[in-house]
Amino acid sequence: MSQFYCGCSDFPHNRKDFFRSATAIEHRVGLFSPPKARVLKDWAEETRSGHAGMRTIWVAWQAFTHRPGDIRKGFGLKLQPGENAANLGHFQRTPENIRVWTRIKEQAVNVGASHILLETSANFSPSEVNKRALTDFAKDWCDLPDGIKLVWHAAGFWERDEAVALSKSLDIVPAIDPLVDEREALPDTSEIYFQMLGRHGLMDTYSDDDLACILDASAMYDDVTVIFRTCDSLGDAKRLIKLSETYEPSGGFSFDSDEDFDDEDEDFDGEDDDFDDEDDEDIE
Fold it and tell me: In the beta sheet, which residues pair with residue 116?
């Protein structure tokens, strides 16, 4: 792995320790209620001052990736006059979604992100409609700012190989947990995003053997981002970075040898927030 970035979700309480140790930050606050532009710019400056080589990931607001009924209560987007909640989410090409996506890109630029993470809910199923919506978005109207890539984590009923095949066709970095099933072959891509949620849930942590397995998986790639979301996410990240300094690969993982994807997919070549407005209307 020529590029290896490791960190956690959102800033921990001890930021000095974070900047001394971690090399990546995933801003999950973007998923819920994004801060004002001035706050994001302050974070970007703090990151540049604390660690010049830090990789910053901005998580896209769920008002764009989720349908309104899937959004957690209290974190809905405020509609402007004439907008319809039914036109939000799931990569629909609507004025409402375009407005939200435009603001998400602005937020990513303000915070100094190199990647925007798209996290879809279980209700974004692997249907033909959803595949085409994601494809049209990525190919036709995503219009990413220079220097920013997309990452996609597919929840729910997506098989890993199906989600990865679609990601590769769209030049999107796949996000997976390599330890969910260590018998399953890893995606054959040059860049990967590992989301580590704990062996048995977010309140769990990782053993040294687990961390060695993560490094084995990381060694398969040219560019790796590892993000911990556990009860001691910074501690796990620090331990992984320390182990990486003396790491020797064991060859415990392999790539998925199936380079092709289904014929049916080949058609797809082809609080206060930044959206607040006094006249806006809340999504219920």
Answer: 58, 150
